Task: inverse folding
């Protein structure tokens, strides 16, 4: 009785291996296909006429638009709202808290202390 032993690699049958002539023809076909694509794109690029660059544009009239929906329906944001809105929560959980509480942050003198398991512990000034 013949027992087949699996060595982890499936050996292909010689009839399933692509002959070198067919493989070379496939590469040649792909090369010709790419060249034809380049020729077609190059020919269309050469057939296009360049568009002349415009000169300086005239300023637009300051008239309201006649198109429906082109007008802004919202008011302009006030300076106070735009300059105090904040997404950072270091000084509070409300959007206005950083603008109200940031003045309490002491930035001078600003130092960094290096401590723990280091060779040279110390305090460094950021200035």
Result:
């Amino acid at each position: 009785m013949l027992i087949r032993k699996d060595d982890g690699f499936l050996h292909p049958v010689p009839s399933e291996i692509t002959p070198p002539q067919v493989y070379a023809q496939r590469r040649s076909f792909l090369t010709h296909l790419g060249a034809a694509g380049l020729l077609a794109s190059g020919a269309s690029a050469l057939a296009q006429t360049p568009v002349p660059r415009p000169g300086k544009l005239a300023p637009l009239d300051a008239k309201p638009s006649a198109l429906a929906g082109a007008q802004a329906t919202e008011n302009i944001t006030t300076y106070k709202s735009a300059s105090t809105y904040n997404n950072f929560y270091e000084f509070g959980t409300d959007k206005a808290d950083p603008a109200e509480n940031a003045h309490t942050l002491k930035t001078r003198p600003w130092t960094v202390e290096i401590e723990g398991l280091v060779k040279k512990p110390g305090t460094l000034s950021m200035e």
The beta strands are 111-114, 122-125. The longest helix spans residues 20-47. The mean pLDDT is 81.
